[in-house]
Amino acid sequence: MKFQQLRGMKLGAASASAQIEGGDVAHNWNEWADKGHIKDGSSPRRANDHFARWREDIDLMHDMGITIYRLSIEWARVEPDDNAFDEEAIEYYKTLLRYAREKGIEPLVTLHHFTHPIWFERRGGFMKKANIAIFLRYVQHVVRELGDLCHEYVTINEPNVFATMGYLGGGFPPGLSSILGAGRVMSVLAACHIQAYKLIHTTREQLGFRDTRVGFAHHMRVFRAQNPKSPFQRICTRVARHWFQNSVSSAYLIGHFGIPLRNYSGVRPGEYSDFLALNYYTTTVVGGLREGREPNSPRNDLDWEIYPEGIAECAKELYRLLPRPIYITENGTCDNEDAYRARYIAEHLEALLDSNLPVERYYHWCFTDNFEWLDGESARFGLVHVDYETQARTIKRSGAFYRDLIQEDAMTEALYQRYIKDQTYPT
Ligand code: BGC
Q1: Cis peptide before 334 (omega within 30 of 0)
Q2: Is residue 338 in contact with ligand 1, taking CB distance under 6 Å?
Q3: Torsions phi, psi for 407 (to 5 deg)
């Protein structure tokens, strides 16, 4: 491992409202959990009770030296009924953001992170072009209300994951299985992102703010053929990469639409991101028409391959398409015993630093253990341990490593000796 300065890269943490807040909110994932789809029977209704404990969580971030935080707004709280906005809910987020700022923590706000109101779902959700306007109405409301409390936004989180998991048999709500449907949802979301990109800029300009930055969080993986000598597997790999990833990068970042995406709002080619927001976790090995597996590769507790160089490979790919500052908006791993998370972080940061790309931010996923979608409370990604029964928070060893890394502003030999040298990945 190389010992080096972080060279201006800020380290922070990420979260999403439904995964941490808890509460009886009428959004699609509470409904999905009520129908019994979560593996361990848990529900976002409990999660981390962050809605009540947000101050404690922000204080803890501050104590760890964190100065950047990615969080999301729960649309179903802010607009509980069609075109009826709840002032108290927006006030809640304003108070939280104001407090974070007072603590020296700069927010990056995501407007849609997998959850939305049930009434929106009933009206066809992101399957319907006509609903783009409904999303934009919500976006404009939030951006106006938050004013100078937030100047950086992520419009949509992982449209490809949202579409494939929800509309191509992945088990997310609404639980559909249609390749055309998934393509349609990614297309509607492309229009949502690009229109929201423009709208956030114009809205904030009208309010007199000129420091706006907007992007969408792209989930990228390294795709490789299990057997690189097989022409069939190589073709399948190319198709999968294009379908899931490259088509999205081109449409959302620069307005170039190709199969399976359609340009529903007739946007022109242009530049629709002020930063490149990358969520990176793992690889996809393609074994023909089935998913393959890299033999003897390091894996996390959900059996995802750990491949640190991939984070720089994906960032490079985005940068080639549109050279903008890079924010790693998510990177982390499911390590229930916190046995190798520190190594995982150090190796991914090393890959980024070695790439010499302009990586300005790294938001670790996640700050606290939280409700991990279909895996519920059973998959732990946090720097901070949560006891779901008592809601007690305890900084993990990896959290202590992260805190010291921020303090040192460098990966040092002392940190390596203290936190990493004995850590190995499962295979
Ligand atoms: C999502 C997060 C999720 C994480 C780990 C990302 O795809 O944006 O909400 O918890 O991966 O699975």
Answers
A1: no
A2: no
A3: -60, -45
Among the atoms of ligand 1, which is closest to the Cα of residue 158? 8
Q: Determine the Cα–Cα distance for residues 1 and 23; give it in Å rounded to an integer.
A: 43
What pLDDT was estimated at residue 230? 97
Amino acid at 265: S
pLDDT digits (tens, 9 = 90+) for 409-424: 999 999 999 999 999 9
pLDDT of 262-296, one tens digit each?
Answer: 999 999 999 999 999 999 999 999 999 999 999 89
Q: Residue 13: which of 341, 314, 233 has the closest Cα?
A: 341
Q: Is 370 in the pocket of ligand 1 (CB under 6 A)?
A: no
Structure tokens at 239: 């198709």
Shortest-distance atom of ligand 1 to CA 161: 7
What SS3 state is found at 283? strand
Residue 213's contacts (CB-CB under 8 Å, 6 or more residues apart) are 151, 152, 153, 274, 275
Give the end-to-end CA distance of the chain in Å, rounded to a whole number. 20
Q: Assess contact for 349 and 362: CB atoms under 8 A.
A: yes
Q: What is the pLDDT of residue 392?
A: 98
Q: Which residue shows structure tokens 């999968």?
A: 240
Is pTM beyond 0.85? Reply is: yes
Q: Mutate which of 48, 335, 365 to test ligand 1's pocket (most atoms within 8 Å of Cβ)?
A: 365
